[in-house]
Amino acid sequence: MRKVVDCREFPSEVNCTLAISGEEEEVVRAAAEHAVSVHGHADSKELRDQIRATLKDELILQHT
């Protein structure tokens, strides 16, 4: 199942609205890179563990 993380769910000085979805490892990697480059966090195992803990299943709407 695809996973999603959404910056809107976390307090931010820049009011970030980015959402990232994909396979779990892709999302964790991309979200960590985003957290470092945009939000000034240090890339660490702890950061990636925190991101992984906030992942949600992506809801896919099917139109019929």
UniProtKB/TrEMBL annotation:
Pfam families: DUF1059. It comes from Kitasatospora kifunensis (Streptomyces kifunensis). This is Putative small metal-binding protein. InterPro entries: DUF1059 (IPR009409).
